[in-house]
Amino acid sequence: IQSVPPEIINLSDSLTYLSLPANQLTTLPAEQIVKMKKLTGLDVQYNPFNSSEIARLKSILARNPLLTVWF
Hints:
By secondary structure, this protein is α/β, with parallel strands linked by helices. Helix content is 21%, strand content 13%.
């Protein structure tokens, strides 16, 4: 996939793990993902994020201390 639909937030009451490795993602809707309070794991390994996008994602996603992210 090339993008994560913004409607992902509709799963915030039930989604605990989101696995998106080895896609063509260059960005994520981190502002929405960080609001998903039940989400404890996010795997986005092997996607073509550039270094500035990884820094942005780490900064935003760090607001949820229960979330573990694999880049």
